[in-house]
Design goal:
137 residues; Diverse_CBS-Domain; three-stranded mixed sheet; alpha+beta; single chain; CBS domain
Length: 137
């Protein structure tokens, strides 16, 4: 099975010029803590609620600071045509729960989460991945 078969396609996206307050408000309203950041359809990074706090607020950034100032660049990605195991292995080895999904041309087409994968793969593999992702650094 391929990542495109389980990924979320209806994905909220932040833009580099968005303010931290605006994106944090969207995160609160939607009850999520991760958002890909794209310039047009090109992924340039990702922003988490932790990025906002640790890179933004902790360094003195105000609510009108731009996403571009605190985003995580070089976000790990998977391709829509990759096998599910590719995402599980990457999530396990890097201890991450969500990955942006790009097409063959590098355009953002979705996000895959551990939850998406756990519904489609053998319980053992999802359990192992969750254990690795959740272990203390």
């Amino acid at each position: 099975m391929k990542i495109r078969d389980v990924m979320s396609k209806d994905v909220q996206v932040a833009r580099p010029e968005d303010t931290l307050q605006a994106v944090a408000g969207r995160m609160a309203a939607g009850d999520f803590g991760f958002i890909p950041v794209a310039d047009g359809d090109r992924l340039i990074g990702a922003l988490t609620d932790r990025d906002i706090v640790v890179r933004g607020v902790a360094s003195g950034a105000g609510p009108n600071a731009r996403v571009l100032d605190v985003l995580s660049r070089d976000a790990l990605v998977v391709r829509a045509d990759d096998d599910l195991k590719v995402a599980l292995d990457l999530m396990s080895s890097r201890q991450i729960r969500r990955l942006p999904v790009v097409d063959k041309d590098g355009r953002l087409v979705g996000v895959v989460s551990l939850g998406d994968l756990s519904t489609r793969v053998k319980e053992r593999y999802a359990g192992e991945a969750l254990e690795e992702i959740s272990r203390p650094g």
